[in-house]
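ingest -> validate -> predict -> emit
validate: passed (alphabet ok, no gaps, 116 aa)
predict: started
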Amino acid sequence: MAEDHPELIEIEVREFAERGEEVPHAEVYRIHIDAEMVRVDTPTPTGEMLLSKVHKRPCAFELIEEFTHRESCVVEPDEVVNLRQKGLKGFITAHKEIVTISINAIPIPSKEEGAR
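emit:
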């Protein structure tokens, strides 16, 4: 259907999900991450790239895909996301749980905490 929409330069992914339509090719994809609208110039960004759009790091946050007619799923930082997949509404983020291990009452920071 991209051939049917050659003039599309920038599109909002959620609009196509709500209408149950395929997402056409575009130069820029507007997507919701949490309550923020961000612009992405590729249909296949990584999870880490999407988190960086809302100033979050994968060591502290998970990225979760939201769909209209199927369950949400976690996106790994190095995983490629297809923004053109049918039914994709957007993304939400969630804090990762951080566990502190103590040895002889001295807290040892986890790798995630050390990365902050």
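The chain has one domain: 2-114.
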